[in-house]
Amino acid sequence: MISAPDVVAFTKEDEYEEEPYNEPSLPEEYSVPLFPFANQGANPWSKLSGAKFSRDFILISEFSEQVGPQPLLTIPNDTKVFGTFDLNYFSLRIMSVDYQASFVGHPPGSAYPKLNFVEDSKVVLGDSKEGAFAYVHHLTLYDLEARGFVRPFCMAYISADQHKIMQQFQELSAEFSKASECLKSGNRKAFAGELEKKLKDLDYTRTVLHTETEIQKKANDKGFYSSQAIEKANELASVEKSIIEHQDLLKQIRSYPHRKVKGSDLCPGEMEHTQGQADHASTTSNPDESADSDIYTCRPAYTPKLIKAKSTKCFDKKLKTLEELCDTEYFTQTLAQLGHIERMFRGDLCYLLTSQIDRTLLKQQHITNFLFEDFVDADDRMVEKQESVPSQLSQDRLPSRSLEECLIPKVLISVGSYKSSVESVLIKMDQELGDEEYKEVEVTESNSFDPQENLDYLDMDMKGSISSGESIEVLGTEKSTALLAKSDSQASLTVPLSPQVVRSKAVSHRTISEDSIEVLSTCPSEALIPDDFKASYPSAINEEESYADEGAIHFSASINPLELSEAQEGGLENTPPQIDSSCCIGKESNGQLVPLPIPAHTLSDEDGVVSIPPQRYRQKDQHFHVDFAVENTNPSQDNSCETFPAYELDPNHLLASRDVSKTSLDNYSDTSYVSSVASTSSDRTPSSAYPVSLSSERHKKRAGQNALRFIRQYPFAHPAIYSLLSGRTLVVLGEDETIVRKLVTALSIFVPNYGHYAKPVKHWVSSPLHIMDFQKWKLIGLQRVASPGSAGTLHALSRYSRYTSILDLDNKTLRCPLYRGTLVPRLADHRTQIKRGGTYYLHVQSMLTQLCSKAFLYTFCHHLHLPAHDRETEDVVASRQLSFLKLNLGLVNEDIRVVQYLAELLKLHYMHESPGTSNPMLRFDYVPSFLYKI
Amino acid sequence: MLRWLIGGGREPQGLAEKSPLQTIGEEQSRNPYTELLVLKAHHDIVRFLVQLDDYRFASAGDDGIVIIWNAQTGEKLVELSGHTQKITAIVTFPSLESCEEKNQLILTASADRTVIVWDGNAGRQVQRVSCFQSTVKCLTVLQRLEVWLSGGNDLCVWNQKLELLCKTSHISDTGISALAEIPNNCVAAAVGKELIIFRLVAPTEGSVEWDIIEVKRLLDHQDNILSLVNVNDVSFVTGSHVGELIIWDIPGWTVRAYERSFWDPAPQLDVQQEIRLCQKPNDVSIHHFTCDEENVFAAVGRGLYVYNLQMKRVIACQKTAHDSNVLHIARLPNRQLTSCSEDGSVRIWELREKQQLAAEPVPTGFFNMWGFGRMNKQATQPVKKHQENGTSCSLELIGDLIGHSSSVEMFLYFEDHGLVTCSADHLIILWKNGERESGLRSLKLFQKLEETGDLYRAA
């Protein structure tokens, strides 16, 4: 049975100008029910489109040389998550789409076995039968005992939502690359260790054999050698050869280009401090394995063993586990990274996208966003800043991010539409991605294809897939998409290939095949060969090219002559043993048909541009994890505490939001995830990178609701809010702690932050206030005690009355300066139609963002603050400021104060990027206060 | 719907409760200090503030530590600890290398009977003198002679290398309470009710030794002398516990002017004695002086008095300037006077001159003036003092600074950075002109933008 999601994606979006996130409207003839389970009366999010698993998970599989594809572990390691989903079967599927020919062995023309440093391949595939779509990341690890020294592995992100995989491809790719890089560097280390041991063994064996030969020689004075002696000599010779071979391998593995390694932030050597978190993650997922590996890692000085000649490859020998292959340290770190990926992409796609857009926009106003945005996000930005990112990269980051943001969603839909029909894979392993010119040439050549020809090939594909019963459709490769990113428009112009025709074929095709795996996108398996390596192993390069073009030869005649000749050579010389025949179906180097328009440089430069923004999520995430384990309190607070340990740490806040922390606990511990129809919120709310944001989300909603209530209940809400916005401390005085806390929390959404730490809000205090408190806090909940001891409290309050506005909850009075502006009435309209707390919160946020931009303009307008010439007096400047505020920014009366206060905060923040070091100053005005009553 | 009647809650419902005490209210348009920064580092009463240079000052107090601060940023620069008991006096002393660089030495005397010399720049202890028989209660530096004096039970003269040059014999068990440099290489030391003038003899061709000789003992004060300040080349002024203000002629050591009526609020001259008895002497004790060319400003009890040197009269006064004793006053530019008090507040006054018509009925007696002021019965109203030439002055409150929760011991005025106050609540507060600070921050902001190359000027 073919489920509709397969088809949905394969619709053409004709207009690129359309709204990027809109589902493209289907032509009539293809109007299939969008959501096949809708008639069951369930809501679309309740169960992910009939998949057998309850939510997304990560699967690590291996193509074992003994038992074939087998699943190794899942993240989260919880049977509830994947439910009845057949991991074995899916492992088979995902392992079977690995095209890369990572060959180690004796290539012809080379004396010694050779290692290829093979780039990972990244494939997106869909399995309609299982209702699963997966981003599959293939990688190869080295194992001295394995066949050909390689152990193919893959990590798959499995989701029921195809769009999610496609639209988050870039992020997934970047994140998984990091995990893979970590595994591989660990593996290289372990492999080198293995080789060293083996060399010691061999050396020892040689010595032993040598002694034996000598003894035999001495024993034999007859002048001829016995067969035994000859055998020994042969053995010795083979050992010698083996030594040379292994030495060579060791040299190769050590000469692995460090360019790759540097880019990876997961190298344990460089990031020792992350170990704690990694360990934590490992214990959650695989405690047994890590226990085993401890023995392995702390191995004592090695005692060489005698190696028997003709050491037989026995199939019953136990292959090394993944952990053994990669060194425990690296392995646990990889698991931590994978756990992070799982959390990062948890939730509904629209949620992911919205939060991504949100973050991008927030990042764009990085100067002002500290004022009112959640310090969680701001905090995040701090971590980002701390990273040792090359300056150039960090400069490039913003534009490139926004580019992705705009491009990906728009074109990904068309990815589906094209790809389903014209399965094209460009596999050219030898090509360096940075080689732009080469690509250009290729693209133009491929543009000249006869479309009809294309379709013919297509038909061929169909046949192939039908006959095989199980078809795998490769829909695109990352590399070819990279090409297209540059020549997208050009290509679509030159090739008048009707998408409709294509689509019909695709659909019909789909009905035939019983169960199909559609490979939607892959990235090229690109061999990475250092220059010196190329020189010493010229044949190796050839070898790869032959593999690369092998597939293409079968189906495409349109490869340029040069490639073709190369390919034919390769094909004649060597038939790749590992490539599944079905993999080769539908490979064409037809660039324009593979529109995954990711900017070329972002892909080729994976270490840099792409990987940076997600990296910080990881770090942050781990912070969160650690804190969580230790304190088990509100995560948002934890974050703030961590950054500013001494300052602003308000334990009361933690108390206030204990319920929030509980919910977040439920949502963030992997095991307690409950998949149910009712779990929609937990499915949606965890944003990609911010596990913390869930709690703050609830927090926001509640705060918004209470703020709304306050505005409706108190007619003097406006001056109270004005006090907060203009930086005058508002003291909420009351007897009942819960009421005061609730109101303080609600009003805290109007409090501007000093910087990237917790808001200057004190929820509950019972001791008399001090001048320091007004400097530190902008919103204080104060206990009113009936006892005479409280006289001091009230006395202090009246003494410092010029610094405060006092909201008396018991008497329902407010004492604060007059407000006559227009800003707050819009912000807090008691007749507002907004009903929901979350909506109101967003309303406030948007209003405040507007306010922030005004403050930004005011702060950063040069002529407003500096005299235009020497003779200009301060008064002139001041009047210019005032007229700007009034006329250009449209501020009335006290609104000016608000913008001025925000401007001061902006200045301070801009001057001291680390606000913890500088003291916040208390600004105040000498203005009369009035007493408001209900 | 009461809300609608009230008009959306935007209308003021009434004025805030007004303090019955003398207050200026919350509208202080002429008070420039709209920004404050609390500096917290001391653990006990902060009693002394001393300016080091244009942007630094040192604070010292009962916790025995000296802290050097940046007056601009409020940054704590150095903490100097060495005294085991409270600090009793602090002075700055430009060191020998002062011409090359601003290397300020700080001298502190403590109740642990030591004097420590600190290097303010390096933030270290230079030397320590611990041969004192008693607590050094006052220190003074004679810049011209490059010596400093310590006053305890005796008076010692030291040079910059901390060598004892000479000392007096044991003067008194109570010790010297105040010490001031007066012209002609003389110092005035207040010992109880007595005022002793010493002359310092610098080594000349005749003698290689320093010497200090007692010149004169002045016994005109009836109670302990609390304050002592040099006015100009020909006079200095002392104030006592019972409100006697005496201006002395320097060469002759004679009383030039004697004023002892501050404490007398009554219009009747004849009941002066009784009133004096029923009044707490503390209310009229003269705690501090400051002076300029024309006037001597005295902190008398809770009030402030301006005494004109030329007219030899009090030209303006504010009898209850504070709720409690005024501890320190200082003259600020623009004819402003600042006072701080035990009530924890700092007040800024302005001395205003008013031309009065001579035709106005002028009471004849000096003390009748007080009666005139009294009739207003408004503590906030400045008491006007009419003079023969028709000039009257008034001290008008233009602002108050409320921040400290305990008595404000001292303050320091920086031309560029505002006011620094220290208090018994262990805090130091930097009061700044908010507008100016805002402008400065803008300036810095654009400087930074320029440095980072982010500043684009419109063509």
TrEMBL record, chain A:
Annotated compartments: Cytoplasm
Keywords for the protein's UniProt record, in alphabetical order: Autophagy, Cytoplasm, Guanine-nucleotide releasing factor
Gene Ontology molecular function: GTPase activator activity; guanyl-nucleotide exchange factor activity; protein kinase binding; protein kinase inhibitor activity
Keyword set includes Cytoplasm: yes
Domain UDENN FLCN/SMCR8-type as annotated: residue spans: 48-907
Location of region: Disordered: 266-294, 676-698
GO process annotations (BP): autophagy; negative regulation of autophagosome assembly; negative regulation of gene expression; positive regulation of autophagosome maturation; positive regulation of TOR signaling; regulation of TORC1 signaling
Compositional bias ranges of the Polar residues kind: 274-288
Keyword Cytoplasm on entry: yes
UniProt feature, compositional bias: Low complexity: 676-690
GO CC annotation terms, alphabetical: Atg1/ULK1 kinase complex; chromatin; guanyl-nucleotide exchange factor complex; nucleoplasm; postsynapse; presynapse
One Pfam family linked to the record: Folliculin
Main location class: cytoplasm
InterPro entries hit by this protein: FLCN/SMCR8_DENN, Folliculin/SMCR8_longin
Highest taxon of the lineage: Eukaryota
UniProt record similarity statement: Belongs to the SMCR8 family.
Name of the protein in question: Guanine nucleotide exchange protein SMCR8
Species this protein is from: Octodon degus (Degu)
Lineage: Eukaryota, Metazoa, Chordata, Craniata, Vertebrata
From TrEMBL, chain B:
Annotated GO CC locations: lysosomal membrane
Stored InterPro entries: WD40/YVTN_repeat-like_dom_sf, WD40_PAC1, WD40_repeat_CS, WD40_repeat_dom_sf, WD40_rpt, WDR41
Gene3D superfamilies: YVTN repeat-like/Quinoprotein amine dehydrogenase (2.130.10.10)
Listed name of the protein: WD repeat-containing protein 41
Keywords in alphabetical order: Autophagy, Cytoplasm, Repeat, WD repeat
Chief location of this protein within or outside the cell: cytoplasm
A UniProt-annotated Pfam family: Beta-prop_WDR41
Described function: Non-catalytic component of the C9orf72-SMCR8 complex, a complex that has guanine nucleotide exchange factor (GEF) activity and regulates autophagy. The C9orf72-SMCR8 complex promotes the exchange of GDP to GTP, converting inactive GDP-bound RAB8A and RAB39B into their active GTP-bound form, thereby promoting autophagosome maturation. As part of the C9orf72-SMCR8 complex, stimulates RAB8A and RAB11A GTPase activity in vitro, however WDR42 is shown not be an essential complex component for this function.
Coiled-coil stretches noted in the UniProt entry, renumbered to this chain: none
Ranges occupied by WD repeats: 39-79, 80-128, 319-359
Subunit structure as annotated in this protein's UniProt entry: Component of the C9orf72-SMCR8 complex, at least composed of C9orf72, SMCR8 and WDR41. The complex is formed of two protomers, each individually consisting of one molecule each of C9orf72, SMCR8 and WDR41. The protomers homodimerize via an interaction between C9orf72 (via C-terminus) and SMCR8 (via N-terminus). Within each protomer SMCR8 (via DENN domain) acts as a bridging protein between WDR41 (via C-terminus and N-terminus) and C9orf72 (via C-terminus). The C9orf72-SMCR8 complex associates with the ULK1/ATG1 kinase complex.
A Gene Ontology BP annotation from the UniProt entry: regulation of autophagy
Stored PANTHER family: WD REPEAT-CONTAINING PROTEIN 41, WDR41-RELATED
Highest taxon, organism lineage: Eukaryota
